[in-house]
Specification:
The protein has about 240 residues and is of the alpha/beta class. It is about 30% helix and about 20% strand. It has a 7-stranded mixed β-sheet with strand order 3-2-1-4-5-7-6, sandwiched between helices. The structure holds S-adenosylmethionine.
Length: about 240
Amino acid sequence: MEEAKRILYGRRRGRKLRGSQQRLLDDVVPRLEIALDDAPRPIAPETLFDRPVREVWLEVGFGAGEHLLAQAAANRDVGMIGCEPYVTGVVRMVRGLVDARLDNIRLWRDDARLLIDRLAEASLSRVFVLFPDPWPKTRHHKRRFVSRPVLERLAAVMRDDAELRIATDDNGYLVWILDRLQASGTFLWTAKTPSDWRVRSSDWPATRYELKALEEGRRCTYLRYRRLPRDRQGDRQGA
Ligand SMILES: C[S@@+](CC[C@H](N)C(=O)[O-])C[C@H]1O[C@@H](n2cnc3c(N)ncnc32)[C@H](O)[C@@H]1O
């Protein structure tokens, strides 16, 4: 049963859209958007694409879409689902998609959790949560995207050995994330040396938020987790 969810994200609307942006929103966005009302239960995400895809990756909160677009361009045989409620970010991403003639991105413009709830078990091969809103005040911690129920649901929809990538520039949120992933019993942090979390690898494109954080002197942390195979869950020693 789907529980009623408190909306997690911040603002949805920014400045008034220019004419060309409004046209993208009216003409292109509806062709990319996932319509949950008409979708089967559960949704097999590979069926959301117009052509066969090797696997499906999902990005939560893509912002203006730099990472989503770069991954889609570098991995044309992968279907990418981008989740972002902020309309200005959505039209920026769609502008990039049109310019690069990408046909492997589908869009979800609401709280990512509502879509993740509807996906089939073991259907995603990668999930990206890049610079989620840190909600630093204690009374706002309950709005943080990385939480026990979300991790449980992600574990359900991710395939065995699927990768979860999380980045943050907020030390408080970093500790929170490490604690919750450690407690999950389902995800294994794959870092071997400090450079694995301090340096962004070449297959991990930069985001706008990250570049701003670095410019302002904040250190960014790049975490990679592996979803443990279902028959080895909780068996971290052997992982
Ligand atoms: C700090 S911004 C980072 C954006 C982008 N990932 C980057 O690194 O430039 C966080 C983004 O997550 C989006 N967001 C927050 N909660 C979300 C949710 N529950 N589902 C989908 N997107 C969400 C926000 O709208 C915002 O654009």
